[in-house]
Design goal:
single chain, 131 residues, alpha+beta, Glutaredoxin, 7 helices, 4 strands, 12% strand, globular
């Protein structure tokens, strides 16, 4: 499995992440999880990788703020999965799943540069050899 980017097509942060990956020639597959919802097993794995569902969910989002109070306290991984499958915009975006299985949430230049430093260095050395 290569690098996979999960998010929403209309999400500005996802667009920035995809542009960064394209600009640095990082191969990836983008999955809009409204079109291809994450499975409960994937959601559980992501949550475990980032420190729990509390870390996976964007509690500052409009979607979260508009939820009924009773929906904001899922008691199990299965309940969290159902909530996220019903409201995919709750997940912090993008979700980056690297080839080694590491999961990273969100995007900024420094974070991605650190994650893909080898690819950037390699593409720079190839570019230097071509000139």
């Amino acid at each position: 499995m290569g690098t996979e980017v999960y998010g929403l097509n209309n999400c500005d942060t996802c667009k920035k992440a995809r542009k960064w990956l394209d600009r640095h020639a990082v191969e990836y597959r983008f999955i809009d999880y409204r079109d291809e919802p994450a499975t409960p097993a994937m959601l559980k794995a992501w949550a475990e990788a980032v420190g729990g569902f509390d870390a996976l969910v964007n509690r500052g989002s409009t979607t979260w703020r508009n939820l009924a109070p009773a929906r904001k306290a899922p008691g199990s991984a299965a309940e969290w999965s159902l909530l996220i499958r019903e409201y995919p915009a709750l997940v912090k975006r993008p979700v980056l799943v690297l080839a080694d299985g590491k999961v990273q949430l969100g995007f900024n230049d420094k974070l991605y540069a650190g994650l893909f430093v080898f690819i950037i260095a390699l593409s720079g050395s190839i570019g230097q050899r071509l000139h």
